[in-house]
Known about the structure:
By secondary structure, this protein is of the alpha+beta class. The protein has a 4-stranded antiparallel β-sheet with strand order 2-3-1-4, with helices on one face. Helices cover 36% and strands 16% of the residues.
Amino acid sequence: MDSGQIRLHVQPGTRIEESERYFAAIDDEIRHAIPPDQLDMILDNIGMPNSGINLAFGDNPVIGNSDGDILISLKPKHGSTENYGEYLRARLREKMPDCTIYFEAANITNQILNFGLPAPIDLQISGRDAPDNYQVAQDLARKVSSIPGAADVHLHQVVDYPEVRVNVDRSKADQLGLTERDVTNSLLISLSSSGQVAPNEWLNYVNGVNYQVAVQTPQYR
C-alpha cells in the first residue's frame, strides 16, 4: 500500500540549536525532491518531549536534543512514495555524510508489522562486557550493510551522548545535612526543570486549562 507518508529519523549529534539548522536543511531537500502540488505537510519533532504523557504515548526513538523525527505527508494525488524515499535516502547521505539518517515505518500497517520496533529487522546483542558488545555490533552492522537490498543499516543505541558526572563527598555533605537525594534533586532542577522534582500547575479560570509552572537554570550557566 502507498499511504503517502514518509518518516525519517535524524541524528546530527549536536545541540538543539544546531540540530534545528540540520533539520531546516533537510526540509529544503524534501521540498526540492517532492513537487509542491504533491507535498501536503512537513512536521519536525526535535528533542525530548517536555511532557510525560507525550513520552509515554509517543513511539519516537528520540533520546535527547541531538536527534528527532521528520514526518512527511503527501496529498491524495501524488507520485510513488517509495521512489521519493529512495531519492531522499541517496540525496541526504550525499549532502550530509556526518549525520545519521534512516527511514522508519510511517503508516500504522507497517508499524504493526514491525511489532513496535524501529525497523522490520532488529538485531540485538547482549553480554557482560559493554565495549566488546559494541565492537561486535559495529562489525555486524558492516557485514549486514554489504548484503544486497539492505537499507538504513545503523546502530540504534548511542553510547557517546554527552553527560554530566558529579562526584559527591558523602562525609562532607553529611556535615551540611545533605543527602544524595538533595544533590540529585538540585541537578534535576538545573538540567530538567523543577517539573521533574516538584510538579506545579496554574489553572487559568478563563479557559479552564492547567499550565505547568517550572523553574530551570539557563544552559549557559
